[in-house]
Specification:
heterodimer, A: 287 residues, Thrombin, subunit H, 6-stranded antiparallel beta barrel, 28% strand, B: 175 residues, mainly alpha, Arp2/3 complex 21 kDa subunit ARPC3, 0% strand
């Protein structure tokens, strides 16, 4: 025992390194940012309060980007204005003709971004609405431009939103024009990536990508972005689709939290099927 | 004030240095989350906590550097909503790497020289290599593109930021 202690003392640096590595790996294995509870709720509240207190400090780089984005948006809007006028008239006529039911409006909570961490891989935003305002973990966050992310932590007055450009993000999307579905992830580039799309599928640059009805986390038909590039994966049969997010995360200031939580019945059913290993559509197997 | 009193005050400050390190670490971690966006360049920010860890390792030795690395990393994991453990692991290795640059008899001189910058460069590189490896899950994403885009840039920015404490220390040592 004494010899062991002497040995450890002699190589205490290596022993400490091994010990702390082991502890870190264990913590990493059990830690999960999506399960923010207890102390993390306190951290969200505390950091949110401090970010709110410092939010008056102007950020020249962000302001410059915002100006550029607003100029670009102004051009687009003036062009779209003319198109929209025409579309409104057409839409009214078509609705009347097809007797469409008026779409139900999902309740929204308006929120201001009081803090943003958009550095390196840590892309989160803190908003000034929390549990007291009805915000809950799992609610999607949008702007008029499109999907922003998901609420992953709440305190009484603040919430943390995981942005789309985050390693943890997984969004089921569909190409609006050709109805092709796929999972969108962010792998550090300026765009989101839709992987494993067969080369034979019809995807073109400029196609709009919306949230899919397969998703249980996000309501369907919210704009995610636009296809900016398609890349072939070497000799494989698949290709990667790069999607430019519709939302400009640098200039993000106001957002809406959609008061919508995943359907519990569906979540439980899917989880049960996954656990038992049953096929999701048994009829297909029977055939 | 007598020489004895001056010496005892200096000794008290010396004994309190770990508490001071802890307070500085906490302040830097909060500053990182709250205000560092203001000096971010294309989403890249200097890692102030790694600078602190290297500073401690060069001043106190490798063993203390490793402990400081783990503590600072764990603290940052908590305040930054990161996956808990990633920064703790990366900064532990940063402290370990910086420990190889420790010179027991010349530690104060080391902090005010380019040797400190070299230690920052090496430690930050190791830190980012480990951090991004565990953070981005290489099985799902392209590690190297992510690392070259963020890891190398962050290493260089951290090294540039470390020039400020180095120059201040260099001036103090000269005086």
């Amino acid at each position: 025992m004494r010899r062991l202690l002497e040995f450890l003392f002699r190589f205490k640096e290596y022993a400490a390194l091994c010990g702390f590595t082991f502890i870190s790996l264990i913590i990493m294995n059990f830690g999960n940012t999506t399960e923010l509870g207890g102390y993390r709720s306190i951290v969200v509240g505390g950091i949110g309060w401090m970010q709110s207190a410092f939010s008056w400090i102007p950020n020249p780089i962000a302001l410059k980007n915002e100006n550029a984005a607003l100029r670009e948006l102004n051009l687009q809007l003036s062009d779209e204005r003319a198109k929209i006028r025409q579309s409104i008239i057409e839409n009214a006529k078509l609705r009347k003709m097809l007797e469409f039911k008026k779409a139900s409006t999902i309740p929204l909570i308006t929120a201001d971004i009081v803090g943003k961490t958009t550095t390196e891989a840590r892309n989160y935003a803190t908003i000034n609405r929390g549990e007291g305002d009805g915000v809950e973990v799992g609610m999607p966050v949008v702007t008029d431009a499109g999907l922003v992310g998901l609420v992953v932590g709440t305190s009484d007055d603040y919430s943390v939103v995981r942005l789309l450009i985050n390693r943890e993000s997984r969004i089921t999307g569909k190409i609006h024009r050709s109805r092709i579905d796929g999972i969108l992830i962010w792998d550090g580039e300026d765009a989101l990536t839709m992987k494993n799309i067969p080369k034979s599928y019809d995807v073109q640059v400029g196609d709009e990508v919306l949230t899919s009805s397969y998703s249980n986390r996000y309501p369907s038909n919210i704009k995610i972005g636009t296809v900016m590039e398609t890349r072939d994966d070497g000799t494989s049969l698949f290709r990667r689709i790069l999607v430019k997010p519709a939302v400009n995360f640098i200039t993000l200031e106001q957002v809406f939290v959609i008061k919508l939580l995943p359907n519990l019945e569906r979540v439980l059913l899917e989880r049960e099927n996954k656990k038992v290993g049953k096929p999701m559509i048994p009829q297909v197997k029977d055939r | 004030m007598s020489e004895f009193q001056e010496r005892s005050i200096a000794q008290s400050w010396y004994n309190l240095r770990y508490v001071i390190y802890a307070i500085i670490g906490l302040m830097l971690a909060l500053a990182h989350v709250i205000a560092l966006n203001l000096i971010s360049v294309s989403g890249i920010t200097p890692d102030l906590l790694t600078i602190l860890v290297v500073w401690i390792a060069l001043r106190e030795g490798q063993f203390t550097g490793i402990i400081a690395g783990f503590m600072c990393g764990f603290l940052f994991d908590i305040v930054s909503y990161d996956v808990i453990g990633t920064n703790a692991l990366a900064k532990t290795f940063a402290g370990f790497t910086a420990g190889f640059f420790y010179k027991e008899k010349n530690n104060e001189l080391t902090l005010g020289s380019l040797y400190f910058i070299l230690a920052i460069l090496a430690s930050s590189f190791v830190h980012n290599l480990i951090y991004f490896f565990f953070y981005i899950r290489p099985t799902e994403m392209t590690f190297w593109s992510f690392f070259f885009r963020y890891g190398i840039a962050s290493t260089l920015y951290t090294t540039v930021a470390a020039l400020f404490p180095m120059l201040v220390k260099s001036r103090n040592v000269q005086n």
